[in-house]
Specification:
The chain folds into three domains: 213 residues, Glycosyltransferase (Alpha/alpha barrel); 148 residues, Alpha/alpha barrel (Glycosyltransferase); 260 residues, Farnesyl Diphosphate Synthase (Orthogonal Bundle), CATH 1.10.600. 63% of the residues lie in helices and 1% in strands. It has 37 helices and four strands. Strand 3 and strand 4 form a beta hairpin. Helix 2 packs across helix 3, helix 25 packs parallel to helix 28 and helix 34 packs across helix 35.
Length: 751
């Protein structure tokens, strides 16, 4: 237990204050800045000293404390450190060892298959040319050096003009050339480069680019920026600063994705409050980076902050993105973040999000089909495109994200930015949390299995046996171990609604259905001789004992008697089911309004969701239950469910002689509407109801507590997944793998 607390404490510390690792590459460039008026004296001698003190035995400079295997990132850092020492005529032995390290691994530079930091093909050859010009000799074949420099010159020929294929100036290309300016030296117009200077004095928040600009073009604000970061970090600077907000939002995103955010709610609230303040001020730290801006929008909106999609208007068109630095770099992470942000739409008027969703989705699909995606797991992109966030079950997502979690967690810019071991801590806590949860889920499922047998529900021949599905929908969404009462309530009522639905559909006669309703109306006043059949006895007794038991638990949590409300919910459902049964018996064709008013109740989500609201740890007042907001949450959720069911089950229900919303639209149109057109109209209604539900769930300052509102949204997501491709609840194999993944199968972690 203590080691878990220690781990949580280390994560908390990182959430409060992001520790950025030193970048030998950026430190070397800062070390090359001369003191103003003294070109032969370093402005930042502490950076030079850090280089002298931090070379590895193998001759390299690397962010790891040990000399790791060579890669392009390490070669870039090592060459920059060698250049810095050569500039100040220091550390001849360090230089010799560094040159030999580069020589031994020079073949990596030419290997296009090996991942490279941003701008490597511009920066490394440019620095190589600078080193050769300074008289440094590399133990490398001249033909290899010539080959690298020739490629660089060809790239320069294409790029320095700043022309696109259409022959027009590209802002994205200009920004890129400024971003990699360390490798271009006197080939650039440094006054043009300074157009990209930010309010904090930096160029792109990059110490190396800012230092390179200062080497060629003195600027007070740029020097102030470098003074500030050297003062803050000492002799070794990070590869980007500030990166505080990006790192913190990324951590919040990771905590949510792997299911452990609830352990850090106060820290997350502090981060999101700060992000919201930055958002309102249009702070450069959020707004100047596409991925950070999109992530901030999504996380803030989904956590109840009032953020307008208007702030993303500059990205509404694909051409605007392509004309940015991230667009020029074809940065898949930025496109994916925009795609995910576009899905959290809460109004039909958010056309900006629609546009972003359209072009970013198309671009991601193209990338998957053509060159693939770089810097991101292909699975992550495929999954985002295949499963919109409103069709996912959290615990299923958590498992997938844990199993594919990048524990190294590096963020490759010009050089690798590796957080101090925090991702390993996140992964270890997530694994522990998920594994413990599974043991709870397995025990709960055994308890539910006994409950089914004790109540003889397995003896009802007409009833579908859906216990595992009912429990899956609970465990996969109301996942924290401590919310056992809510899961058990949800699952038991889910089983009972399935039994009652089948009883009304196929299992019961008119007399039996009327008998069941009369018994529920009597409740405690019923008599043992009141049952007209054994089927009615089994169904009612299961209802009676279970609702009483769950009512006692909910009443204890709420500190008031809520049992009568639970009985009312069931009575409301049974009467609506009887209405549908009478319609079918008399072949009555209801209006669409009649059908939907009754259908949102008869879809049977009331007994599943509403009692569980009492068990999620929030006080739900009687006045809130009677409030219009409560009714609207229920109506919107049930509308989604009813229409999804009707759309997917249209053929099956039609063959059984049942009417639903699709067939009613066709019938009432007088032949003017086809089945396809009716399905399209229903789909539009589903989208509108889902969007309105999300807006109400996310709205702050409402009478129904947020934790309770979340259950309506969770059920909406379950319905979208269950009806994603088929009438899922009638297709037993569809959910089998999901059941096993959440409840039974242990995590599969890479060895």
């Amino acid at each position: 237990m203590q080691h878990r607390k220690d781990r949580e404490a280390r994560i908390r510390k990182q959430l409060r204050k992001v520790e950025l690792p030193p970048s030998p590459y950026d430190t070397a460039w800062v070390a090359m800045v001369p003191l103003r008026g003294s070109p032969h004296t370093p402005c930042f001698p502490q950076c030079v000293e850090w280089i002298l003190q931090n070379q590895h035995e193998n001759g390299s400079w690397d962010i790891n404390d040990f000399g790791s295997s060579a890669n392009k990132n390490v070669l870039l850092s090592t060459l920059a450190c060698v250049l810095a020492l050569e500039k100040w005529n220091l550390g001849q032995e360090h230089i010799r060892k560094g040159l030999h390290f580069i020589g031994r691994h020079f073949s990596l530079v030419m290997d296009e298959e090996i991942a490279a930091p941003t701008g490597f093909n511009m920066i490394f050859p440019g620095m190589l040319s600078l080193a050769i010009g300074a008289g440094l000799q590399f133990p490398v074949r001249q033909t290899d050096i010539d080959g690298i420099l020739h490629q660089w010159e060809m790239e320069l020929k294409r790029s320095v003009d700043g022309k696109t294929l259409a022959g027009q100036k590209s802002y994205g290309r200009e920004a890129y050339m400024a971003y990699v300016s360390e490798g271009l030296g006197n080939l650039l117009d440094w006054n043009e480069v300074m157009k990209f200077q930010r309010k904090n004095g930096s160029l792109f928040n990059s110490p190396s680019t800012t230092a390179a600009a200062l080497v060629h073009n003195y600027d007070d604000k740029a020097l102030d920026y470098l003074n500030m970061i050297v003062s803050k970090f000492g002799g070794a600077v990070p590869t980007v600063y500030p990166l505080n907000m990006h790192c913190k939002l990324s951590m919040v995103d990771s905590l949510e994705k792997i299911g452990i955010s609830r352990h850090f709610s106060s820290e997350i609230e502090g981060i999101l409050d700060m992000a919201y303040s930055f958002w309102l001020q249009r702070d450069e730290e959020i707004m100047m980076d596409v991925a950070t801006c999109a992530m901030a929008f999504r996380l803030l909106r989904m956590n109840g902050y009032d953020v307008s999609s208007d702030e993303l208007s500059h990205l509404a068109e694909a051409s605007n993105f392509h004309n940015s630095l991230q667009g020029y770099l074809s940065d898949t992470k930025s496109v994916l973040e925009l795609y995910k942000a576009s899905k959290v739409c809460v109004s039909e008027h958010e056309l900006i999000l629609d546009n972003i969703g359209n072009w970013s989705g198309s671009l991601l699909s193209e990338k998957l089909c053509s060159e693939g995606v770089q810097g991101l797991p292909i699975l992550e992109v495929e999954y985002a495109l295949k499963f919109p966030f409103y069709t996912t079950l959290e615990r299923l997502d958590h498992k997938r994200n844990i199993e594919h979690f990048d524990a190294r967690g590096s963020h490759i810019l010009k050089t690798e930015c590796l957080p101090y071991g925090i991702n390993q801590e996140l992964l270890a806590l997530a694994v522990e949390d998920f594994t413990f949860s599974q043991s709870i889920y397995q025990d709960e499922l055994l308890h539910l299995d006994r409950w089914v047998k004790e109540n003889r529900l397995d003896q009802l021949q007409f009833a579908r046996q859906k216990l595992t599905y009912c429990y899956l929908s609970a465990a996969a969404t109301i996942f924290p171990p401590e919310l056992s009462d809510a899961r058990i309530s949800w699952a038991k009522n889910g089983v009972l609604t399935t039994v009652v639905d089948d009883f009304f559909d196929v299992g019961g006669s008119k007399e039996e259905l009327e008998n069941l309703i009369a018994l529920v109306e009597k409740w405690d006043e019923h008599h043992k001789d009141d049952f007209c059949s054994e089927q009615v006895r089994i169904v009612f007794c299961a209802l009676y004992t279970t609702v009483n038991q769950l009512g006692s638990i909910a009443s204890a949590v709420q500190n008031r008697d809520v049992k009568n409300h639970l009985i009312e919910i069931w009575l409301h459902l049974l009467r609506s089911m009887m209405t549908e049964a009478e319609w079918q018996r008399s072949q009555y064709v209801p209006t669409m309004e009649e059908y939907m008013t009754n259908g949102v109740v008869s879809f049977a989500l009331g007994p599943i969701v509403l009692p569980a609201l009492y068990c999620v740890g929030e006080k739900l007042l009687g006045s809130a239950v009677k409030n219009q907001e409560y009714s609207e949450l229920f109506r919107l959720m049930s509308t989604c469910g009813r229409l999804l069911n009707d759309s997917q089950g249209f053929e099956r229900e039609g063959s059984e002689g049942k009417l639903n919303s699709v067939s009613l639209l066709v019938l009432h149109s007088g032949g003017s509407m086809s089945v396809e057109a009716a399905k399209n109209a229903i789909q539009k209604s589903i989208v509108a109801s889902r969007r309105d539900l999300l807006r109400l769930v996310l709205k702050e300052g409402t009478v129904v507590p947020r934790a309770c509102k979340e259950l309506f949204w969770k059920m909406c997501k379950i319905l979208h997944l269950f009806y994603f491709r088929t009438d899922g609840f009638s297709s037993p194999k569809e959910m089998a793998s999901a059941v096993n993944a959440v409840i039974n199968e242990p995590l599969k972690l890479p060895s």
